[in-house]
Amino acid sequence: MTEKITKQYFTYGDSPNVQLLESGLELGPITIAYETLGQLNGAKDNAILICHALTGDSHVAGQYCDDPPDTPPGWWNFMVGPGKGIDTDRYFVICCNVLGSCMGSTGPASINPATDKPYGLDFPMVTIGDMVDSQKQLLNHLGIRQLYSVIGGSVGGMQVLEWCVRYPEMVRSAIPIATTMRHSALAIAFNEVARQAIMADPSWNKGSYYEGSGPHHGLAVARMIGHVTYLSDEAMRKKFGRQLQNKEDFSFNFGGDFQVESYLRYQGSKFVKRFDANSVLYLTKAADYFDLKNVENTVESLNDLSHKQSKFLVISYTSDWLYPTYQARELVQALKRSRQDVSFCEIEADCGHDAFLIEDSRLTNLIRGFLDGLATA
Amino acid sequence: MTEKITKQYFTYGDSPNVQLLESGLELGPITIAYETLGQLNGAKDNAILICHALTGDSHVAGQYCDDPPDTPPGWWNFMVGPGKGIDTDRYFVICCNVLGSCMGSTGPASINPATDKPYGLDFPMVTIGDMVDSQKQLLNHLGIRQLYSVIGGSVGGMQVLEWCVRYPEMVRSAIPIATTMRHSALAIAFNEVARQAIMADPSWNKGSYYEGSGPHHGLAVARMIGHVTYLSDEAMRKKFGRQLQNKEDFSFNFGGDFQVESYLRYQGSKFVKRFDANSVLYLTKAADYFDLKNVENTVESLNDLSHKQSKFLVISYTSDWLYPTYQARELVQALKRSRQDVSFCEIEADCGHDAFLIEDSRLTNLIRGFLDGLATA
């Protein structure tokens, strides 16, 4: 049975109660789109926050009430639901679209109340910390004082880590997956090339394109770059190899010969229909800025964590070359230095960075076991 | 002492003696720009052909006669010259710009004699095999019947391998470096994204831009993608890490915060000044098409090679993730199956695919020793 979900919206930060951002700028009002599954118990201590990756959304699992029956469910449906790894018969699951995105939460495509037009580049830069602060506002609104767990992969994992240093008292446990303590030069490089691809498109028009067609070509190229980094050499070799698309021989033109080319073009054009180019700029920049050591008083925060010890399950994938296992090990070491209770698992998988989005009983069992263990601890 | 070099041009293939290309199309006349160092001996058996990489040129070493004194020498100057690893006191070194390029040899920016305008996309697709065929024409012109060695890295290494199966009788020895027997899905993916970046630029104008400004933005993005693949995670970490550019704190805008961003932007803008966008399209496509098994009668050719055994020195780099060592091992195994005399060396280096372009006495000594060994064999 697929759970029926309603997308909800929480708005806060009307002037003068705007949110102070890490940049020093202020933003408000802010709307956060979110979805919940399961029931919050009377003690309000069974809430799990799931943080989505770069271009994800709040639709973590289930189907919307008005979805036609054959609509694909949310992006982590194999993991979240009744009796699943994150069991919504036991836990109250919350997933919200990040600040700066375009899937319901306030971002550069939202209307700027000062001008009644989309913000565009007038939207202030937001950081992973700003995203977490907005999630905290939502939890306050829901009356949740402590999270049973906070879980997320990739940029979602950065939010998980930021939660642990920003609001350690609220985090009973954390599962950062396929992520890093700080964005590497390689990861920054890929993001920068993606941004340049968008900004090179004349239709980008310095971010003011909402009345026109938008930088579709640049955004598609940016997404293609992203997709290469989400896969791996092994995954591409197995999935595509040198297989030709609909042809027995080379075309000797630039229409695309290989299946991997068609795949990337398809991913690029599909993305253009669902995502805002400016949001890609803002969200990649937030990821690039992410560096746990930049969080104010991190060391102290991590040390504070040891007074209120959280349990961590750190997960990496062998073929993830965007946030390779050595970066997960660095995180594990840092957590151990601050005397946290850390479990670490590297999952052998050849599908690259995106492995956590692909159904795999090893991941499900790891998360289920970890969450079960908390209950009996 | 830096040798003084003159760039030379060889033209062949006037109608009806045009070159039949692998695509089945014909091309002519064809001009090949080339440079030579050292002296061809009386027996004409001391010639070494050096094949350049994707966007390289014929200027392998030395300075042009009319260069100001402080002009940087050719791209492999540390390797090629009097007394160097490829010793021009002993060998006659030839390096020619590949067919389809824009550095003196015929390519899409050349004038199409049928229209008196640049070819643009009317230029026929060329393959690594077509490049080698044009090099063969030059050797015929120079009266060279056998190469002491053919040496090249990356796409230059593909030319080396193509030489060995296309004209085995002409190849006494071969040194393919940081290369592959066939372009992988990952390598095709990066090339395709680069091509899409160029073709997404409205100034590309379906390849007809020679009277205008050209697709500078798209070409710069394409080059940035290339540069990410030429480096490595380790190289970027050591070279850039998360160091900021001229700032003590984040800019919170899209102007570029990190040194790696500035580096990539600089590489992109520098490339736009020296290289033709259409040539990038053609040359990346030639690399993507490269698959040694597609060479007609390869197996037979490789077996034929065993009658006239060549000596091979295959070199790979530990941090090359564009053509990783496992691909070099596949090549070594294929050569051994056809009973070739193969030496293989994986060089430990953290600078990625471009390592062969960086001065390193290990590479120099390997090549020097291999070439010396041939003389005494």
Short characterization:
Two copies of one chain form a homodimer. Chain A is of the alpha/beta class and 377 residues long. Chain A has ten helices and 16 strands.
What attributes characterize this protein structure?
2 domains; alpha/beta; globular; two-stranded parallel sheet; homodimer; eight-stranded mixed beta sheet; Rna Polymerase Sigma Factor, Chain: A; 377 residues; Rossmann fold; 35% helix; 10 helices
Protein described:
The structure is a homodimer of 377-residue chains. By secondary structure, chain A is α/β, with parallel strands linked by helices. Chain A folds into two domains: 4-183 and 291-376, 3-Layer(aba) Sandwich (Rossmann fold), CATH 3.40.50; 188-285, Rna Polymerase Sigma Factor, Chain: A (Orthogonal Bundle). Chain A is built from ten helices and 16 strands. The first copy, chain A, has helices at residues 128-142, 155-166, 185-199, 216-230, 233-239, 259-274, 277-289, 298-307, 325-337, 361-376; strands spanning 4-5, 8-12, 19-20, 26-27, 30-37, 47-51, 63-64, 80-81, 86-87, 92-96, 111-112, 117-118, 149-153, 173-177, 311-317, 341-347. In chain A, the strands form five sheets. An eight-stranded mixed sheet of chain A has the order 2-5-10-6-13-14-15-16, with helices on both faces. A two-stranded parallel sheet of chain A has the order 1-7. In chain A, strands 3-4 form a two-stranded antiparallel sheet. In chain A, helix 9 (325-337) links the parallel strand 15 and strand 16 (341-347). The radius of gyration of chain A is 21 Å and the shape is globular. The two termini of chain A are 31 Å apart. The mean pLDDT of chain A is 94. The interface between A and B is large, with 57 and 57 residues.
